[in-house]
Amino acid sequence: MKNDYPANEKSIAPQKELNVEYERVLKEFKQDLIITGYSSQTLKMYLIYIHEMLYHINKDPKTITERDVIGYLADKKETGCANSTLALVHAAMKYFFKIYLKMNVIDDIKTPKKAKSLPKVLTKQEIKELFHATHFGRNRLMLQFMYGSGSRVSEVVKLKVEDINLKERTAMILGGKGNKDRLIILSKEWIKGIKKYLKKKKIQSEFVFSKKNGKNLSTDTIQRIVREAAVAAGIHKHVTPHSLRHSYATHLLEAGTNIRYIQSLLGHSSLNTTQIYTNVASEQLKKVESPLDKL
Questions:
Q1: Do both 137 and 264 map to the same domain?
Q2: CATH code, domain with 35
Q3: Is residue 227 part of a domain?
Q4: Cβ–Cβ under 8 Å, residues 41 and 87
Q5: What is the pLDDT along the chain (295 residues), one digit of tens a residue?
Q6: Does any domain span residue 8?
Q7: Which residues are catalytic?
Q8: For the whole model, what pTM was predicted?
Q9: What are the residues whose beta carbons fall under 8 Å from the beta carbon of 161, sequence distance 6 or more?
């Protein structure tokens, strides 16, 4: 079949064919990410970034050059894209080109370093007010769990009843960030509350925090619950689920907990990541008291 674009043009397929190729590539790229074990949130963002890049550059993926990528990143920077977002876009493209397409077009491209900022931390009084502004039940227990264990929102949505050891006051976070498992310590007060909640819970579900149909909550729903609780409590800070994790780590550090223990409890690969909260054996970790018990 004869193409209707000039013969002296580069071998670029008509847009309709390109769109079909993009969909095929994105489908395969998604499969690669799933097999590799990326979290659902990372997978979602990587697909968004690569989809946007492909349609912006508008070329067969295998013909994309370093100059194309630089031009795309420069355009994003000029339109006000933050350095932190550019770093994520760069990470997505690095996997796409280097791992999926086996191309080296991005190897020499550097992005601006993400500015290090201190995490947003709530005071102990604000934590109390946040809990009091939430009705006892699923939502309050969920907020208490995030603060009392330092868990990520992506870990909270996947938490199952079978992951919790009520007697030992511990829980296993399975497939956390970097697909790592870790032990977390649970508050005595939270254990009392969750026992009552699970006993009275009308809908049987494998998930600790579930919807009425038994399915797990989405990260968006949990983020909304946290925002609404902060507004109800009159807290004039940008409060997110991660704010509770930051507060957990900071309050442990303030209480004199060894930073190595905090690193393990948070699931940080590097101590450098944990040390931002300063401006391991399983049995030893079990001796660490949750800050929730000290409110």
A1: yes
A2: 1.10.150.130
A3: yes
A4: no
A5: 334 333 333 333 346 667 888 899 999 999 999 988 887 888 999 999 999 999 999 999 999 999 999 999 999 989 988 888 898 999 999 999 999 999 988 888 887 776 666 678 899 999 999 999 998 899 999 999 999 999 999 999 999 999 999 999 999 988 767 667 888 989 999 999 999 999 888 778 999 999 989 999 999 999 999 999 999 999 999 999 999 999 998 899 888 888 888 888 888 878 777 777 775 334 445 667 788 887 7
A6: no
A7: 152, 177, 242, 245, 268, 277
A8: 0.63
A9: 198, 205, 206, 207, 208
